[in-house]
Amino acid sequence: MEDSVKITLPKLGESIVSATVVQWFKKPGDRIERDEALLEVSTDKVNSEIPSPVAGILQEILAQPDQELQVGEPLALISGKAAPVLAAVATPAPMLPQENDTFLSPAVLRLLQEKKIPLTDIDKIPHSGQGGRLTKQDVEGYCPLKVDSTERIKMTGLRKAIADNMVKSFYEAPHASLITEVDVTRIMKLIAQEKQAFLQQHGVKLTITTFVARAIAKALQAYPLLNSSLENDTIIMKRNINLGVAVSVDQGVMVPVIRNCQSMTLLDIASEIAELADKARTHALAPRDVQEGSITMTNFGMTGTLIGVPIIRYPEVAIVGLGAITKKVVAMPDDSIAIRSVMMVSLTFDHRVLDGLYGCGFLGELKKHLEEDITL
Length: 376
Hints:
- This protein is an alpha+beta fold.
- The protein is built from seven helices and 22 strands.
- Helix 5 (208-222) packs across helix 6 (266-281) and helix 5 (208-222) crosses helix 7.
- The radius of gyration is 34 Å and the shape is elongated.
């Protein structure tokens, strides 16, 4: 009848009373022969391979890699005909001396060879083992950047949610985009003149985003199809304009919603944008703050990008993109030449819901409000 044999950590030297498990050469269920290497352990002086004192099947591993054990503590259970407890006899692993007196275990040497890392590069690898020893884990952690020149980064929950929404929107809705140039010279002059007084009086900044948000709300009243969603073959028209404003946070984007934007004053919109942006960056947004948007605005021009074609946020049917404001020489209606502040504005829409001419009409209306409606 076969009994379970408990293998314990043998004494590895006169002054050595403990060792750390480096790696197992076998896994539970594997066949092991007598005197065959079972695992590798390390001390501050030497690495040793522990052979099995019996032949049998490795039933259970009792010590995990990087676990430190005292001499006599259990390592594993092996099924075989033997006494209840056997201490394995440690065999010092052959070590390879380097020019800097660094020693490498056979397991580390094998891994270096597999990863094609030259021995001349081992000083570049951080050593985390006892006494500055290079471990197998050190080599594995170094390989992706050194050999493969790649790094694997798992998506955060926020990034995954954004990705899922973008994929769904991109593949379900046939996207079409239009771009127009808007002269924002008068708005920028007004902002320069009034921003300090506006901030002191109301406690919020006066920005181009505020003016664009108001202009979108006004243009949508003339072109309401853009303020809708599509459910199967039914277009759901939204009476309230709930404008989402994309805000960059950490490595993602949140889109808090300005509700009932069509009934707000410029000050109301500026205050709402400031509050929602602050809540987004401090992770204080409530679920209601990001729900029920009907159309989105994103300002990638803040990074200096001139033109962009963003993806619609499902289940909305349109998104407005703002490019960077730049100076350019322009021929005026009276044939004079002037330096003007201009901004590219893009409209991306779901072509199932509206056609290009309708989108052109909306952009024309938006352009009109931005160039002509500059009152506070």
